[in-house]
Amino acid sequence: MKTKISGLLSLLFPVFAFAGESKLDTGDTAWMITATAFVVLMSVGGLTLFYGGMTRAKNIVNTVMMVLGAYAVAIVVWTLWGYSLAFTDGDGALYAVVGDLSKFLLNGVDYKALSGTYPEWVFIAFQSTFAAITIALASGAVIERMKFSTWMVFSILWITFVYAPIAHVVWGGGFLYDAGALDFAGGTVVHINAGVTGLVLALLLGKRKDYKKTAILPSSVVLTSLGAGLLWFGWFGFNAGSAFGANEVAGVALLTTNVATASGVLSWIIMEWITAKKPTLLGGASGAITGLVAITPAAGFVSPAGAIVIGIVAGIVGWFGVFILKKALGYDDSLDAFGIHGLAGIWGAIATGFFALQSLAWDGSPLQNGDRMGQILVQIESVIFTIVFTGIMTAILYFVSSLITGGARVDEETETMGLDEATHGERGFNL
Description:
CATH architecture: Orthogonal Bundle
CATH class: Mainly Alpha
CATH topology: Ammonium transporter fold
Radius of gyration: 20 Å
Number of domains: 1
Number of helices: 15
Strand order of the largest sheet: 1-2
CATH superfamily: Ammonium transporter AmtB like domains
């Protein structure tokens, strides 16, 4: 197994492998720094507005703090040991699932060291934003009833024992990487991971005490729409940045991301038109996110035509998850982290096997060898592994976090008052 990120990237994208020693490319470096900044904006800007607008006014500060707190925790944990666990490789059975701690606190990683054609430190920063937004996304399932202290402890443990291993298995040299699983920018690593985590937490926490008893209205669908717009904008860094350079594949990811997102908007609002006769702003914003989620694993591997199909189906799948599946199963996923991210992520990961172009697949994958069905089966394997591993580990870490903080759920008085004043001593709107 290879031990250097540059070696990993040359395997993922052989067209960018260089003869002889890699050299710093200022264009690639500038693009990767910009892409990293895009992902930061989509997380602490777009996601906070998207989630904040969807929650009730008495909990909007807490909702934003859940995102911001988890994001900050993840960045620090990633720098200390998360990156090492995800992106170190070696011989032995352990490395099929997780890396080691040889790069703890970036030990031995010189600031001049390269990851392909740009500094490895930039790659570390870029990947840290992926870890951070993944745990932040999961918070949408548990807002309005989970203790902030428990959430912070859980975030530390989750990045360490769930996100880092999944990232290693799919991207860092683990067994799914070796099997040829395709995940361009995080369908399994980010979205299925976050969605399943949110579902497990929602089930373990239980429903909000007034769920289905009183109207639970969003504080501002306009804020949510603005957040969706910033997420759409930032996602170009998320997906096009995952080409790891200012190159042709970044252009592919840029175009497919845009067209799939637009398709998701249209299919969701058409579903609303058919079923409720009223297309909503909240529905349009949600449709955009489903399109973004579903195209993420496929962005650099598919044509615009494939992206349109992926986006259209994603909007339908997301609508089904929010309005049919959640009602049928009766769980309380506050902001539909599973219905949107989990289900659309599952669809996108499997659809990658159907629509990936052989000319864009990385060297050594079953698709590259002309085996379409083999690629689809590998994609399904990656989905199943992520669901099972994440589900089991999330449940364990939930109980550990609850034990450390004296219970995960806020008391009834706090839930009635709202977590903004009770937990943070602030109001989102002083009207």
